[in-house]
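Supplementary Text 2. Reproducibility record for the structural model of the 199-residue chain.

All settings were left at their defaults, and a single model was retained for analysis rather than an ensemble. We include the record here because the model underlies the residue-level annotations in Supplementary Table 4.
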Amino acid sequence: MSDFEPVTPGPAFQAEWAKWQKQLREWRQAYDEWRQVLQQLQEWDEKESKGIQLPSIDPNFDVFGVENILDIGEGEPLFGNFEYEDWLLLSTRVELHLLVHHFRDDTGGAVLDESNLAHYYKCYFKKNFKPEDFAVRALGTTGSIFQGRFFEAAALRDGFKDSFQNVDTGAPFCALLSHGLSGQQAFSTSTEPQRVPIS
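Retained model, structure tokens:
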């Protein structure tokens, strides 16, 4: 028997979740198209030996000044160099943002904390919240993901600190971005600087 109160994700959550899934599909399509362009350029370069300069992001590039995340120059999307881990981090940021806001709305003000996060994450997203995806040792340290403590992988350290607050162990999670998905671009731009280039 579960000690957790039953909750049904409401229509507002369902609408925003569908909107996010559509947005993510569009971004993944733009990413796939960009990767195909890069692959074609590389093949032409190898065939012709012309030394084509493949586009790359300037290390001084201001991701927060981007007006169009689908084209930051030469048709490259902001997430043109994302790897699996980057997409996972981006998706999890949005999912947790939605969960924090809608759980409160759907339960009439109940709080989400590390004791119930995994349970309600599964209720809303029909999948498990897996701390090991973020190099966290155990579910009991889940709240620390948001503050960057207990991370073993430097690539994901502080991965969520600009999206959520959980100052003390056991304290409720609070979203730092306002309700609604007008902040989708904010999630993408805040994920990019935390990427660790794969060499």
